[in-house]
Specification:
Number of helices: 2
Number of domains: 1
Shape: globular
CATH architecture: 7 Propeller
Helix content: under 10%
Number of strands: 26
Order of helices and strands: HHEEEEEEEEEEEEEEEEEEEEEEEEEE
Radius of gyration: 20 Å
CATH class: Mainly Beta
Strand content: 35-45%
Distance between the termini: 36 Å
Length: 355
Amino acid sequence: MSKPFAFLVACALMGYAGAAAAVSNEVAQARPAAGAPASAPRPSPTFAQMTDGGCCAQPFFSADGRYVLFLDKPAATAPVGIWAVAVDAPLSPPTLFTERLGPFSRDLSLALDLQDGQTVIERLRDGKRWTINNGGRPVIFSPDSRRIAWTVVQEVGGFDARRAQIYVADVDGRRARLVATRFGGGPLGWLPDSRRLLVGGRASRSDPSPTLAILDVDAGAVRPLVAVERLRGAAISPDGRMLAYFVAQARDAAQNGVFLLDLTHPSPVPQRLNFFGAYRWRDAGRLLYIPLRPGAPGDELWQLDVATGRSERLIAADAGSPFKIANGDWDVARDGAKIVFLSARDRNLWLVTLP
């Protein structure tokens, strides 16, 4: 699989859910906890093997949570595409969902296709396709699938200073308009209301540091949040109130770490968390995370209650457990009740029902 191909699929499957961080465990242990961890784990979750024979990549849940979808070519004569297994029918033969590889809209009704230098959107239920007049650039679907956003980036100059013009249009390409210009940044994701974008970068080249901000695409107003450099892994909570992100290799090493930010606060202050690793939102108030612990017999799954700062271990590291995730390939169901992951033990997909 080519790197550009894998990148596009990863963007689709991970969507606005968030990305994994990778930095040293020694530094993580030196950070103070954001609240006292629970002394005992919750009751054990249940595991179910979903596929066999070694397969698949980048699993994710359908919008209704009934299916696990994944990238695969299950047989020599089968097409490369997005395949599906029903959650209530583990180890059943996979069925082809679409040969389109995304990225997809949140409800999986639309797929993006960059074809012959053009940006094409396809409606999957009937195959209707239309071209977006944006110079063949990828787009970001809004959560309600009614809008798209894209960025026109200056092709020369340092990456931290290049001009990025942010455009928004209806999903069919109509009413395209320039809504903001940033330097050394751009859109990081839609907020759930499909009206605001989280953006990074500088408002002008003369600004001393990048600023995280919220852009109202209808009013054209930008609300600065906090100055932060090298922000990665932006994950917006389902209710749009909180943001999880990480900073690595900052010029000031004290700025490295995983952070929470209250997007509703008029003057938000980043809250450093006590781990480094991968994270996904379970729901509006709970963040699931997997600490990076090289050499551990398996992975651990923890849950942070944002309101109390209390962390609980849901899955313990166990050499006999399938819970060792390959390539950061895991996803959380929309209702927060289950996760799916690609196991590094056997290269199969596994479903976990959380307590």
